[in-house]
Design goal:
By secondary structure, the chain is an alpha+beta fold. Helix content is about 15%, strand content about 25%. The protein has 4 domains: about 60 residues, SH3 type barrels; about 50 residues; about 220 residues, no CATH class; about 60 residues, no CATH class. The strands form 8 sheets. The protein has a 6-stranded mixed sheet, with no helix packed on it. Strands 21-22-23-24-25 form a 5-stranded antiparallel sheet, with no helix packed on it. It has a 3-stranded antiparallel sheet with strand order 3-4-5, with helices on one face. A hairpin with a 4-residue loop joins strand 23 and strand 24. Helix 2 packs across helix 3 and helix 2 packs antiparallel against helix 4. It is elongated and about 140 Å long.
Amino acid sequence: MAHEGGHYANGKDIVLNTWKLQSGQLIQGNFSFAKDDKIFLEQEGGQIKSIYINDLSVQDQKLARFKIARYAQLNDAYLNTSQDTSYPLSNFLPLCIIGLLLWLVYTFNKELIQIYILNSKIGSAAFSVCFIFSVLIACSKSTTTNSNTTTTNPIVIPITVTIPKTSFGFMDSAFAAFKPSISTSWDDTYFYIASTGIPNHNMMIGITNWQQQVPITQPYNGTNSWSIPLQPAYATTPLSTKTNLMKGAVAVAVNGIPIFNALNNRGEDSYKIGELDNWGGHCGKGDDYHYHAAPMHLSTLNGLKPIAFAVDGFPVYGSKEPDGASMIALDTCHGHNGTNGLYHYHGTTDYPYVIGALKGKVTLDPNTTAPENQVIPQAFTKPVRPATSPLSGAAITDFTAVGTNGYLLTYKRGAKNGYIKYSWDLNNKYTFILTDTSGNAVTNTYQR
């Protein structure tokens, strides 16, 4: 602002336009300018409010684009008019000729100057008119547009959108409800989440397409903690989860459980084919529990705080906006910019559930290839036993804790039940008792 208070300072008779967002929120302010994909509104008191165009209602998007186009038209009309405001040397030619003639006459015959100009009213008047006319010609500006002048196009400097660094206090508050089962820490680059890989809710019940894996504790701690970048940056091209990231995590839930691609490593929707439990998770080949669908139930404890953070650094919210408003339309990445101008994802109950494409820049593991590529850094599991195979027709009906370091899983196959009872001691020795539907039991032990 060139003066204090802007153009709409308090106490003046002002009229502010009202803009409507897709969420239904109303914002007052007059269009000031546009930059990138935002418009900037000047509000009462000279405050400037930025709004993403795509967050406006359909009608106000049209209004914003009309104003942007009109401003561009006016600016182009001004910039494309190039006038020559110089004083060409040719303008001084008449004055120079008169001066030269007078000098020649004076040099060879001073009496002519004395008689016909200085002592003659007619001569003096004629000389004065010629002199004034010559001066006017010499000092006149050319107002003719120079159509032959080559116009140099202005240098366009690419604008890099800088996203504010995420506050570790904001991130830590999202995980607070799940401590001390998890722990957090941070440095200048990453926010770290350490966990056992076991959530604070029940697991496995509801799976009808079972690989015979069961959840065990995981060493997600120390240098093997989950890492979320504090400084997100927009990717040039978002990385689609339809053709990428079918290995490893795409986000980490606020209870310390990783969230994988909605598609399994065969490209199937894990939820639709019955691989997931009632909480949207299951176990991988390392007996590692993780989600493939959005853990929407975490909003029960976290309210309007994020339910997860993607591996590109952007937060994931539940079915509500951070301010409590109803969720507005999502882009192909499964997110959008909030009213504060910051990007975030949303969890939903339909595909892709959490991440449609990573909006932010990430580093891919060079040892992996699409579609089974993965983001680094991230935590890794350490299998205890060999990977198991699917058990057709089995549906998990119950899962209960046994003591402090064990579980009993019950599954039904046909009309009969089968069981897996397992536990581990302080020395990381794991004991599995497998009882099939015929009552046959097998015990196996493994050392991690």
